[in-house]
Specification:
two-stranded antiparallel sheet, 11 helices, single chain, WH_DNA-bd_sf, mainly alpha
Length: 240
């Protein structure tokens, strides 16, 4: 018996590949093909723009990705240098899920987020500098502005959390997030097509900042838990 047309699986259109991801892959291939070693200089920004036919912002986003992974450094007035050899296989380490449903994938990822972000908040509270606080508050203010204007603020929310990670002065926090970014970003892309996903956590970002500014590690942990507990509640409620 032939399957009904409605029973057949849907072939979905291919997503548009992220340009910064393409540039990142191209740079990794170049480093590998050219057999560059630690201390070697990478092509200049303008040269990369011309060779890859992309804009400056895309090049800089890819460079920031490499910097976050600790594999390159930019020296003012000199250029960008390789700190350790990389390949496409080493710059992208996507996590794999056995979970078929978005609900299960989000809950599994949340368990990892809870451990990393609680620790990051505590470490940031102990190590943040005055400059870190300025950056975190700038990201928070922008998040609040966009949230009040649009009712949602996914990218700005992520930028706030990245600023907290940077305030730990432990590059592994940022590197871990970069390696897991594709998985973590599910939380900032309106899961279940709900613009109000985790909206109730909005006020606790300000109290998390206050805890970090006060140098109160335990309060930072508690405020982070409040945010993630709301996320978990919304996952379970909105996936019914």
């Amino acid at each position: 018996m032939k399957a009904k047309l409605s029973d057949r699986p849907v072939i979905r259109p291919l997503p548009v590949m992220d340009r910064a991801r393409q540039v990142t892959d191209a740079l990794a291939d170049y480093v590998e093909d050219a057999r560059l070693q630690a201390g070697d200089r990478l092509p200049a920004e303008r040269e990369l723009m011309a060779a890859l036919a992309v804009g400056r912002s895309t090049i800089r986003e890819a460079i920031r990705h490499f910097q976050a992974l600790g594999v390159i450094e930019t020296r003012k007035g000199s250029g960008t240098y390789l700190l350790k050899p990389v390949s496409r296989a080493t710059i992208h380490m996507p996590l794999s899920f056995d979970a078929v449903h978005l609900r299960d994938a989000l809950l599994q990822t949340l368990e990892v987020r809870r451990g990393i972000e609680c620790e990051a908040g505590m470490v940031a509270a102990r190590r943040r500098t005055a400059k870190d606080l300025v950056v975190i508050e700038e990201k928070l203010n922008e998040m609040e502005r966009v949230h009040l204007e649009k009712g949602t603020s996914g990218p700005e929310d992520l930028a706030f959390h990245l600023a907290v990670y940077d305030a730990t002065h432990n590059p592994l926090f940022r590197q871990l997030l970069e390696q897991m970014r594709e998985t973590f970003e599910r939380f900032w892309e309106h899961p279940f097509d709900r613009q109000d996903f985790a909206r109730r956590s909005f006020p606790f970002h300000r109290t998390l900042f206050n805890a970090i500014a006060a140098g109160d590690a335990e309060a930072a942990r508690m405020e982070t838990l409040k945010i993630l507990d709301i996320v978990e509640e919304d996952i379970k409620e909105m996936s019914k």
